[in-house]
Amino acid sequence: MRLVLVGPPGAGKGTQAHIVAAQLSIPHISTGDIFRANVAGGTELGLQAQEFMNAGELVPDSVTNAMVADRLAQPDAQTGFLLDGYPRNREQAVVLEGLLAERGIALDAVVELDVDNESVIARLLDRAIKDGRADDTEDVIRRRLDVYSEQTEPLVGYYREHGLLRSVDGVGSIEDITARIVAALAS
Question: Which candidate in 29, 82, 113, 129 could, as Cys together with 11 as Cys, close a disulfide (CB 3.0–4.6 Å)?
Answer without folding.
Answer: 113
